[in-house]
Amino acid sequence: MSPIVASATRDRLRIAIQKSGRLAEPARALLSACGLSWRESRDKLFCYGESLPVDLLLVRDDDIPGLIADGVCDFGVVGRNELNEQAAARARFGLSDAYREMHALGFGGCRLMLAIPETWDWQGPAQLEGMRIATSYPAILSDWLEKQGVRASVVELSGSVEIAPKLGTADLICDLVSSGATLLANQLKPVETLLESEAVLAGPARELEDQRADLAAMLLRRMEGVLKLKDSKLLMFRADRDTVPALLRLLPDADPPTYLAAETGGPLSLQTMCHGLVTWQRLEELERAGAQGLMVLSVERSLA
Ligand code: PRT
Ligand code: ZN
């Protein structure tokens, strides 16, 4: 098993994912769907890639950008919020970019928002002058405040940010919001979005140059295939030629269809990959517009 050390050249790719937490399971599921499988070490911190020379490191999400910056890992699955915070903090220290977002992954969606006590009226960022804002994202918040031309003090907290106004340690907060239930439970209301976040694949700022480059290119291609297919379905139906233009207008999210004409004439057979949701309602609309024998098929893999 490879020792976990940084190295300028390696022939195996290393990906850091969250050990436990919101992004852990979806990250594993995505990498499995890309054809990766692993053997877990006893300490459950390192998973040795069996199907491909791609190993996993199971860590805290906060550590992922640093592991990429130090060359210990080549890629990581991490929230854009965490990646951008650490990149903003590096920039504030005058350090160069050490990692970049390679691909948005479509899970772990949330927003980094300013939230104020629900009894306040929100009149815009100027209202924040001289206030204390609790957050776990001090660099993103400081950059945003500077852009707004507002001087406020940033109170850095590593957790339970939402109770800071009640405790009197801050006047308002800047935190991640998904359903909004936590804000509601703490009598806070969201007023400004600083960042739209989701899980992303992070990679090194510079291209990999050794054998890992080909592996990385293959992994990214597979990942794009998996993500593109996530909500996609193969739609098959028959239709008379004169109804086809109207049917295609009902499928703006579909690829150009493949047509098959029967030698004996009669209706055309069509098949197309549809990238939006194919609901019962859509099928019924297509049927009313002349589609016959509609079939919706799941697609397992595609390199299209
Ligand atoms: O142990 P480790 O350090 O790895 O985990 P962690 O506790 O730091 O991270 P974790 O698992 O809580 O979150 C990992 C990533 O999930 C975050 O960096 C975000 O990219 C993403 N994510 C998505 C969220 C949320 N949604 C989210 N709602 N991370 C945190 N929250 C918290 C938020 O901070 C607030 O306390 O959930 C609360 C708000 O949720 P709602 O639904 O009430 O609005
Ligand atoms: Zn964390």
Automatic annotation (TrEMBL):
<dbReference type="InterPro" id="IPR018198">
    <property type="entry name" value="ATP_PRibTrfase_CS"/>
</dbReference>
<dbReference type="InterPro" id="IPR001348">
    <property type="entry name" value="ATP_PRibTrfase_HisG"/>
</dbReference>
<dbReference type="Pfam" id="PF08029">
    <property type="entry name" value="HisG_C"/>
</dbReference>
<keyword id="KW-0067">ATP-binding</keyword>
<dbReference type="InterPro" id="IPR015867">
    <property type="entry name" value="N-reg_PII/ATP_PRibTrfase_C"/>
</dbReference>
<dbReference type="GO" id="GO:0003879">
    <property type="term" value="F:ATP phosphoribosyltransferase activity"/>
</dbReference>
<dbReference type="InterPro" id="IPR013820">
    <property type="entry name" value="ATP_PRibTrfase_cat"/>
</dbReference>
<feature type="domain" description="Histidine biosynthesis HisG C-terminal">
    <location>
        <begin position="231"/>
        <end position="300"/>
    </location>
</feature>
<keyword id="KW-0963">Cytoplasm</keyword>
<dbReference type="InterPro" id="IPR020621">
    <property type="entry name" value="ATP-PRT_HisG_long"/>
</dbReference>
<keyword id="KW-0808">Transferase</keyword>
<keyword id="KW-0547">Nucleotide-binding</keyword>
<feature type="domain" description="ATP phosphoribosyltransferase catalytic">
    <location>
        <begin position="60"/>
        <end position="224"/>
    </location>
</feature>
<dbReference type="InterPro" id="IPR013115">
    <property type="entry name" value="HisG_C"/>
</dbReference>
<keyword id="KW-0028">Amino-acid biosynthesis</keyword>
<comment type="similarity">
    <text>Belongs to the ATP phosphoribosyltransferase family. Long subfamily.</text>
</comment>
<protein>
    <recommendedName>
        <fullName>ATP phosphoribosyltransferase</fullName>
        <ecNumber>2.4.2.17</ecNumber>
    </recommendedName>
</protein>
<keyword id="KW-0368">Histidine biosynthesis</keyword>
<keyword id="KW-0479">Metal-binding</keyword>
<comment type="function">
    <text>Catalyzes the condensation of ATP and 5-phosphoribose 1-diphosphate to form N'-(5'-phosphoribosyl)-ATP (PR-ATP). Has a crucial role in the pathway because the rate of histidine biosynthesis seems to be controlled primarily by regulation of HisG enzymatic activity.</text>
</comment>
<comment type="pathway">
    <text>Amino-acid biosynthesis; L-histidine biosynthesis; L-histidine from 5-phospho-alpha-D-ribose 1-diphosphate: step 1/9.</text>
</comment>
<dbReference type="InterPro" id="IPR011322">
    <property type="entry name" value="N-reg_PII-like_a/b"/>
</dbReference>
<keyword id="KW-0460">Magnesium</keyword>
<dbReference type="Pfam" id="PF01634">
    <property type="entry name" value="HisG"/>
</dbReference>
<keyword id="KW-0328">Glycosyltransferase</keyword>
